[in-house]
Structure formats: structure tokens, C-alpha cells
């Protein structure tokens, strides 16, 4: 048996480590542990508030843990914590349960032990993929960052939000909503 490709190794790891998220970012294999309770509650809250803001009536869907095919390297893909996507996103399946970047309106990552990937590598990958809005609940540094409107594969400097503030969801997402920084970070309001 020959040497495994990074894509084959990712497939093996995904089967061998249920409950862990396997991604390939810029050719690197990343394995993320299962979320903790606050992380999970943040995502549940997002489902409730995005739904309550009329996302479905606006032709959107909101999902956790679906794959995003990345244009960075041939096998690159990410599995964002939470995404707001076009309602017909399933028509944009590329492969391996990953969808084309053009159907993603907003990606949200809640940091875990691998926080540096969310703050650096994923910023680069999502900008190169043309994702219009990327929100990071940075629990390591106790703030929320909002990256929007990439130009030439790069996001301008992120807007930073501290506890007690709210984050306006960009118009490009398709719903009007303010997200509480404390709830994004802590998972409960």
C-alpha cells in the first residue's frame, strides 16, 4: 500500500474519531475536539435568533457543521461551526459533503482549544473563498471579531466587539439582527 494522500488520511481519521471534526486547511490536516457546553449553547442560540429573524422567509437556511469546499488547495475543506446559506445550497454539492463557497452568506466559528486556526488560517481560507461575512466568537481573548467583504482574497481589518456590545449582522447575510457578544461567548443569555 502506498502513501496516503491528505484527503485519504482525513477520511480515515473522520471514521476513526467519531465526534471530532476533521478539516484540511491550506494542506494541513486539522482535528478538532467535540464542543464544550458553552460552545454548543452558543450555536443553539444562533439557530433560535437567526430563525426568529426570518431567515427562512428570506430564502436562507442556517446549519451547523456542513462542509465548505475551499479553493486554496485541491483537498482543502472546512467544517464551520455555524453557517447561513442560500436555501438551495444542496444544489452546490462539490464532494465529501462539502458545498461551494458561493452559497455561504455568513460563517460563525466559536473558538475551542484550536483557537489559532479560527483566528488566522480560517480567516485566510474564508477570505480566499469569498465568504462575505465571517464572525469569530473568540473565547480565548474574550471578544467577537467580524470580518466582512473580502477584496483580492483578503478581509480588511476585522471589527472588534467587547462584552456588553452587540454585533450587527451584515446586510449581505439577508437578515436584520444584532447579536449579543456575551451570548456568543458564553452560550447563554
Report on the structure:
With 189 residues, this protein is of the alpha+beta class. Helices cover 25% and strands 31% of the residues. It has four helices and 14 strands. It has helices spanning 6-16, 37-52, 115-128, 181-186; strands at residues 21-25, 28-32, 60-64, 67-69, 77-78, 82-86, 93-95, 98-99, 104-110, 133-138, 143-148, 159-161, 166-168, 178-180. The strands form four sheets. It has a six-stranded mixed beta sheet with strand order 3-6-9-10-11-12, sandwiched between helices. Helix 3 (115-128) links the parallel strand 9 (104-110) and strand 10 (133-138). It is globular.
Low-pLDDT windows of residues:
none
Measured between the Cα atoms of the first and last residue, the distance is 53 Å
| Structure annotation, total helices | 4
The total beta strand count reads: 14
What string gives the helices and strands in order?
HEEHEEEEEEEHEEEEEH
Question: Order of strands side by side in the largest beta sheet?
Answer: 3-6-9-10-11-12
Query: What radius of gyration results from the CA coordinates?
Result: 16 Å
Integer average pLDDT: 94
| Beta content | 25-35%
Helix content: 10-25%
Shape: globular
Largest sheet: 6 strands, mixed
Structural class based on helices, strands and sheet pairing: alpha+beta
Amino acid at each position: 500500500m502506498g502513501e496516503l494522500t491528505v484527503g485519504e488520511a482525513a477520511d480515515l481519521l473522520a471514521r476513526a474519531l467519531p465526534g471530532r471534526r476533521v478539516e484540511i486547511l491550506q494542506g494541513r490536516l486539522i482535528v478538532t475536539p467535540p464542543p464544550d457546553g458553552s460552545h454548543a449553547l452558543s450555536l443553539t442560540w444562533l439557530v433560535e435568533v437567526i430563525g426568529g429573524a426570518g431567515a427562512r422567509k428570506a430564502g436562507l437556511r442556517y446549519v451547523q457543521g456542513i462542509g465548505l469546499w475551499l479553493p486554496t488547495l485541491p483537498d482543502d475543506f472546512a467544517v464551520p461551526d455555524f453557517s447561513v446559506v442560500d436555501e438551495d445550497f444542496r444544489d452546490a454539492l462539490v464532494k465529501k459533503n462539502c458545498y461551494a463557497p458561493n452559497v455561504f452568506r455568513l460563517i460563525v466559528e466559536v473558538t475551542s482549544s484550536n483557537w489559532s486556526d479560527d483566528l488566522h488560517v480560517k480567516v485566510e481560507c474564508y477570505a480566499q473563498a469569498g465568504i462575505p461575512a465571517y464572525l469569530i466568537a473568540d473565547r480565548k481573548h474574550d471578544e467577537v471579531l467580524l470580518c466582512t467583504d473580502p477584496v483580492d482574497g483578503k478581509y480588511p481589518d476585522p471589527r472588534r466587539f467587547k462584552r456588553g456590545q452587540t454585533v450587527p449582522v451584515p446586510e449581505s447575510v439577508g437578515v436584520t439582527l444584532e447579536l449579543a457578544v456575551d451570548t456568543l461567548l458564553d452560550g447563554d443569555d
